[in-house]
Each structure stands twice: as C-alpha cells, then as structure tokens.
Known about the structure:
The protein has helices at residues 14-19, 47-60, 70-89, 103-114, 136-145, 189-198, 218-221, 246-250, 286-302, 304-323, 352-361, 374-379, 396-412; strands spanning 27-28, 32-33, 35-36, 97-100, 123-127, 148-154, 160-161, 171-177, 202-206, 225-229, 240-244, 262-266, 269-272, 328-331, 342-347, 364-365, 367-369, 385-389. By secondary structure, it is α/β, with parallel strands linked by helices. The strands form 5 sheets. Strands 4-11-10-9-8-5-6-7 form an 8-stranded mixed β-sheet, sandwiched between helices. A 4-stranded antiparallel β-sheet has the order 14-15-18-17, covered by helices on one side. The chain has a two-stranded antiparallel sheet with strand order 1-2. α2 runs antiparallel to α9 and α9 packs across α10 (304-323). The longest helix has 20 residues, at 70-89. The radius of gyration is 22 Å and the shape is globular. The two termini are 23 Å apart. Pyridoxal-5'-phosphate binds next to α4. Pyridoxal-5'-phosphate is lined by residues 102-104, 131, 133-134, 177, 181, 206, 208-209, 229, 240.
Amino acid sequence: MSITGPLDTVFLDTVAIRADFPILSRRVRNDKALVYLDSGATSQKPVQVLNAEREFYERHNGAAHRGAHLLSEEGTEIYEGARAKVAAFIGAAPGEVVFTKSATEAVNLVSYSLAPSIRPGDEILITEIEHHANLVPWQQLAQRAGATLKWFKALPDGRLDVDPSLITGRTKLVALTGQSNVTGVITPLAEVARLAHEAGALVLADGAQLVPHHPVDVKALDVDFLVFSGHKMLGPLGLGVLYGKRDRLEALPPFLAGGDMIEVVRMEGSTFQPPPARFEPGVPPAPQAAGLAAAVDYLTALGMDNVAAHEESLTAHALDALREIGGVRIIGPDTTKDRGGAVAFEVDGVHPHDVGQVLDELGVAVRTGHHCAWPLHRALGVQSSARATFYVYNTHDEVDALADAIRYAQRFFGQR
Ligand SMILES: Cc1ncc(COP(=O)(O)O)c(C=O)c1O
C-alpha cells in the first residue's frame, strides 16, 4: 500500500510532513505499515519537537525561575518564550497563559479555584457531549458547593441543543467543549459565550480537540477560560494550557500550592504571586514547554487554515467511504459542516473492541470504547464505538486503508 496520494498535497504536503515523524515509518504487526488514526487520543511528534526537548536537556537544563546561574537563566527564557508563543497562537497575552500538567488539570484548576464563589442554589451548565475531563470536575464542584448541575442535551446527530432557557440569572458558569472528541461536532462557542455573558455567567471552553485542528482566537470567541493539551497538537506529553482573561485569573485563588507561586511566606500564612505564577507551583516543565513551542512553530508554518482544510478533506473522504459500506453506521453528523476530523462508527454485529483488534492486526490504529464520553454514547443510544481521528500527517490512502480494514473485519466476523 502506498501511503500518499495526489489529493494529499492540495492543502498540506504530507510527503514532506510524514518525513518529519520518525514513528510513522515504523512497521507494526507482522510488518504492516502503521496507519495512525488515533491523534485525538494523542498526536505523534515531529523531529523538530523531539529535538527541542533534547536540546533543552543537552544544553540548557537548569531549573527555570530558580537560581542565578546561566542554565537557570536560559531555562527561564525558554520557558517564558514558550508561554509567549502559545499565547500568540490563540490570540492571548503571555500573562493569560498558565501551564498545567494537562487539559484535565486545567479544568480542575478552574473548578477548585472557583469553588469559594459558588453558593448553594447556583447553577453550573455543562453539556451532554463533554469528555469526562470537562464533566466530572463540574459534578464534583456542584456536589461540594450544593450547586445545581444542568446540561445542554445532545441532538440525535450528536450536535448540541443550545437551549438558551437553561442559562438563567443563577448560572455561574457554562463549561462546554469546542469540538467533540467522539463525533467531531464543533459547537457555537462564541454564541454560547454571548448568551452566558448576558446572564452574568463565566464560560470555560474545552479546546483539547479544537486548538490542535483549527485557527482559534480567544478574543473573537470571548470565552473566559480555554483549556487544551500540548500532546494532542504535536507537543510533548505532560503539558497542558489554561488560558484565562487577565481579570478572571486575577480573581482566582491558587489551586496547587508550593514553591515559587508565593510572594511572602511566614509561618502564619503566605501571600501569592499574580497569575500566571500563582498557578504554577514547583520547578517548571521547561523542556516540555520548549517542545510545545516547537510544535506551535510547526503548526504555524503549515498554517492552521491549511491544517483545518486538510482534515476536512480527509473527513469528507472518510464519511463517503464509510457510508458506502453496508452495516456501518456513522455516529455523528454525516457532513463536514461544523465538524472536525473525528469519525466514530459502529459495525453491525461486531463489537467495537473486536473491530479495533482486527484493524490493529492490519496496522490501522483506531480508538475503541466510550472515549471518555459515556453520557454522549448513552444519549446516542450506543454502548461504545470505534473512532478514527485525523491529523496533519494522515493521507487519503490511509482513509482507504481504514475502509478496507473495516470490510475485512466484517468478513472476518462473518458479517458480509
Ligand atoms: C475533548 C477533550 N477534552 C479533554 C481531554 C483531556 O485531555 P488530557 O487527557 O490531555 O488532559 C481530552 C482527551 O482526550 C479530550 O478529547
């Protein structure tokens, strides 16, 4: 099987891109070409990112924001340079970007830090299409604070039923995803932010599946908080991002406490730094930040409009190809309108885990299960699903390989 085709060079030069990702030339499962369709879980990393991390350790490894020596100084410059780069990537100021461990930790940071301002009877509005990372922390906050949890429901095609009557004078926060990790549905973030702000509520957007794949400008969206993960956008694992409007971050007390987030420490108590330092205790993950900065450079050089267009063309191809296979049901919208590159599906008579296993034998890596979005699966009437997700290095030939592998799985299980 060749892994590139003419369509792949329309928006992105996938031949050149794939050459930057060493793992993509790996052979798997009895010498099969690796067809990696699980970037929604974690993306692969180009040499530019691997080199940036490696160079940090080889040349600049000192604790950033600690000590007076040259290595610490360089570590600080690299760490703060990465913050400025990530901020520019989403249209924010550097002081509005907090580095966390993950998108999950970023949601927890906001949910814990907001807790003192949530009273019994207040309402927190989420959605039925959330990843558990943007769902369970709000359930926990509502339980701790005696607040009421409400949610926008999923429509039968997985889109969001934005019912404005759910936003009331008691709503303190609306937390919603920008793009579903299951159906690829893109939500009307700016519209929800407008409605929420009219009611005096804050808005947190989960950008874990949005920021890696589309141009994002936090000022245009006008959300108060945006979370995302570096590892889903070509960057290293272990680094997430919390964007917060300056005044919103300033109003929040610390989440995790420890070294370097303090102003003055006495035995009786401590005062805290302004954001972002207030939320970054401990020795900063500067090598990971260096890697993420390289990832941002990589994506910026490709152009986020091109990234989005490339993924849209792969998604359109996948929707067409899967629609043609009898006994396969696409879970989610079956057009690319307001939809990103996640395609979840069911195969009649074959459990998604079995589909995943047979595909894996052919070298095709997809995710199976409920994808940390159990309520969404329940709402759509499915136990679990298989899911293919696309990124900058995926090709149209790989979409065909997915369709061929699904047909093979059907034959293997005697369904065709
Ligand atoms: C939509 C969405 N939100 C949040 C997360 C959590 O990201 P992380 O596991 O990197 O914290 C994920 C990860 O799959 C996701 O897809």
